[in-house]
Amino acid sequence: MDHDIRYNQTIIRYQDGQLIETTDDYVTEFPLTVVVNGHEFATVICSPNHLEELILGFLASEGVIFKRDDLIRFEVDEQRGYAYIEVNKDIQQASYLSTKRLVASCCGKSREFYFQNDAAIAKTSMTTIHITPEQILHMMAQLQAHSQTFIATGGLHNAAISDGKDFYVHRQDIGRHNALDKLYGYCIQRHISVRDKILIFSGRMSSEILIKAAKIGVGMIISKSAPTTLAVQLAQDLNITAVGFVRENHFNIYSHPERIVGTPSNPMPS
Questions:
Q1: DSSP H/E element including 52
Q2: Would 122 disulfide with which of 18, 212, 214, 221, CB 3.0-4.6 Å?
Q3: How many whole angstroms separate alpha carbon 261 and alpha carbon 228?
Q4: What is the pLDDT of residue 36?
Q5: Nearest to 94, CA basis, from 121, 122, 64
Q6: Quick check: 85 and 71 in contact, CB under 8 A?
Q7: What is the rounded average pLDDT for all residues in the chain?
Q8: What is the DSSP string of 70-101?
């Protein structure tokens, strides 16, 4: 059973020249140690909900598994904060099991093995999806509407995966990578193809987020915030459409605009 990802307690607030007693919500931070084939693989600092999805997405994005059927054992002990995984291959000698690591919830270069296996796992997109500007604005509006815990706490990243029409799933976490892993895990659990799906994200579109999108296998990522130069370069190289600053009635397209109906490379039908 998922734990509550927000906590309320009495605090002292300074406001308008006075110190007053009130209550405040803040997010729960939860360490989850993942043990693979008897070896501690990583400790993920996360929000304690949708943990099975998180583990599946995390292991798939790191190349430990490729599908749900690769797992022989999958047990989560939420009370102790451990996940016990057995996979149908010997990974004891793999380079990514050489040392135990902490996967932090902070932004920036939070994973020490960031460059070691990304190139082998990231996929060049083969998507054939085409969407309208109105669909982009609608998906971001949906993300905002589902972000009530962020509004209450200010401490979460929000992400969703969609086909731009009927399919839409939202997840949130203190770690931006974790939110995306939960979405990936959701699709793995249910054997949902990600090829023609879109990631919707609340935060900055960094190179790490772009690589995570490529590992998942989507062909488009849209963000409320700005991209970085390296993220745009990677999006160009990996055939991913990157859309940033999606706010109210405007957005910027940084790579592969041909998937957006109405652009010069994909004009509206006459």
A1: helix 51-61
A2: 214
A3: 24
A4: 94
A5: 64
A6: yes
A7: 86
A8: GEEEEEEETTTTEEEEEESS--TTSGGGSS-E
Where do the H-state alpha helices sit in 90-193?
118-121, 133-145, 148-153, 176-189
Counted domains in the chain: 1
- Could you tell me the residue range of the domain that residue 193 belongs to? 133-259
Residue among 203, 196, 201 nearest 166 (CA): 196
Tokens 């090829």 locate to 195
Task: Indicate which CATH number applies to the domain containing 152.
Answer: 3.40.140.10
Q: What is the pTM of this model?
A: 0.86
**Do the bridges between strand 250-253 and strand 82-87 make them parallel or antiparallel, or are there none, so unpaired?**
unpaired
Residue 255, in any domain of the structure: yes
Q: Given pLDDT bands bounded at 50, 70 and 90, which one contains residue 266?
A: confident
For the beta sheet containing 157-162, the strands, ordered from the edge strand earlier in sequence to the opposite edge, are: 168-173, 157-162, 198-201, 220-223, 241-247, 250-253
What average pLDDT does this structure show over 4-20?
A: 82
| Residue 156 in this model has a pLDDT that exceeds 60 | yes
* Enzyme catalytic residues: 107
Measured CA to CA, the distance from residue 17 to residue 28 in angstroms comes to: 30
